[in-house]
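Posted in: Structural Biology > Protein-Ligand Complexes

Title: Requesting predicted complex, iron/sulfur cluster in pocket

I'd be grateful if someone could produce the 3D structure tokens for the following input. Sequence and ligand are given below.
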Amino acid sequence: MTSHDGKVNIKDLTRADLTEQLIQMGEKRHRASQIYQWLFKKWIETFDDMSNISKSLREKLDRHYYISKLEPIDSVQSSSDGSRKFLLACEDGSIIETVLMETAGHKTICISSQVGCPVGCKFCRTGAGGFVRNLSSDEILNQVIYFKKHHLEPNKRFNIVFMGMGEPMLNMVSVIKAIEILNDESALALGEKRITLSTVGFVEKIKRLIDSNAKFKLAISLNATDDATRRKIIPNASNIRELLDAAEQFAIARDTRVTLEYVMLEDINDTAEDASRLAEMTTGRPFKINLIPFNEWEGCEFKTPSEERIDEFIRVLLPVAPAVTVRRSRGSDISAACGQLRASRLTTNE
Ligand code: SAH
Ligand code: SF4
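-- Reply #1 --
Done. Output follows.
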């Protein structure tokens, strides 16, 4: 654990909070935007690099604040599709994973919101590994900054998905703060369409999201078409009808569509009856459906459905449901789904 002598973590502050603190220090309010740009647009790691800021203020900043970062410790390249998975170390030694994916020349960063996950979905390797702690907003942002700095072309658009480790709704304050900083024009300046928050679904929290200032798209991991099956694979899962109603409220209030993710598990949720139930509960509503064939991992009893099963599912779903897409095992050869690289590394280290 690094000691910062009681200094404040500057990347963990919203611009409004930083402005207020700077004013109290006798500084002009526009300094906050300048500092934000150094931190989030130029990704500097010492106050000394803030060249348009006076030496005396740089020294003052250095006495009050510190600049956090994540250290890369490992990465694995997928041979089949160009996705690459990275393990990044937090200052306390916790390890998180982020994946850089590329589809049709378009880069997407898949980031984590927690170290591990307390939800414990039966098909998810992160869930099987248990929960360590929430990430702070600067740790969430530093994943994006790491990629911006080392792996993304300047000025090229990219997307962010909260689909790495963890359940964002169980770390709502830090996740929303991080999204607001991603949105901020003085910081990453990413619009609503560039950020997707994926959640296993907490009805009241989804309703609260509607009123937040953060701009992002919402994806909900539905994963079953009846409550009994959903509760079997997702412990304490919320009720499907209430969940879809909350998702619809979000979509209508924000004039968007909510994506329903559906991890396909052989003989659990991949039958033609499931497909027609899924079609029935989504038809005419502001949703998109993303089918994700299960990414198998050692020690997990579930299987990926056959191609025929998946095709049959789509055949029933497609004519009735809103837009349907299938994620064809992207990165499966490097275990890119949720928590798998970290888990395999932790296992080999033990
Ligand atoms: N906790 C959030 C976000 C992280 S999981 C959520 O559950 O939505 C991101 C996505 O990966 C979810 O849709 C989840 O259902 C899916 N997922 C987890 N393990 C998987 C596996 N082994 N194969 C395929 N998808 C998986
Ligand atoms: Fe957590 Fe999402 Fe994995 Fe479920 S699927 S255990 S909510 S990370």
